[in-house]
């Protein structure tokens, strides 16, 4: 009989809860090799934090619960859990039958962007380079005007863009990196990868608790 996993999240991370639910339901085991959780061994349901708070008194210690995100409910719930994974702003861990997963874009700095790209490639995820995004050009120009740094700043920005290299990111301050890649995009990439890594490497161990 499959084990039941309840994923508790708010609307800001519902997308990744659904992604984990899809991964769990996929028949992706290969011949002689288990991929993520064993096919058919886990059934995942998603509850909003409001639903969880309204009925948490009914849940027994035997229930498998995953708190996803960085809300107050998630933070309070993971306070005493043991961290099992922490790389490039991606975190997950558990204690007993309760687990957590969240991502913090502020921890993914320019110094470890190469590590994040390597991790993504290892798990078969390749994200488009921000230096090839039209948003990068738009940002450099707008930043120059907003800060009133004049033609020299604009020219420097265009020169870097003309190089068409990832070096554009490396040369900017961390604040600029966050804006060029887009805080929203950076967060999405981190949560997507954290969800995939939890599924591939952590969920089976947690569900065996």
Descriptive report:
The protein has 209 residues and is an alpha/beta fold. It folds into 2 domains: 3-106 and 187-207, Rossmann fold; 110-120 and 124-181, no CATH class. Helix content is 48%, strand content 18%. The chain contains 9 helices and 6 strands. The two termini are 16 Å apart. It has a 6-stranded mixed sheet, with helices on both faces. It is globular, with a radius of gyration of 20 Å. A hairpin with a 2-residue loop joins β5 and β6 (98-103).
Quick structural gist:
The protein is built from nine helices and six strands; from the N terminus they run βαβαβαβββαααααα. By secondary structure, the chain is of the alpha/beta class.
Q: What is the CATH C level class of the largest domain, in words?
A: Alpha Beta
- Structural class designation: alpha/beta
Give me the count of strands.
6
Following the backbone from N to C, one meets helices and strands in this order, namely EHEHEHEEEHHHHHH
Estimate nothing, just give the exact number of structural domains: 2
What share of residues is helical? 40-55%
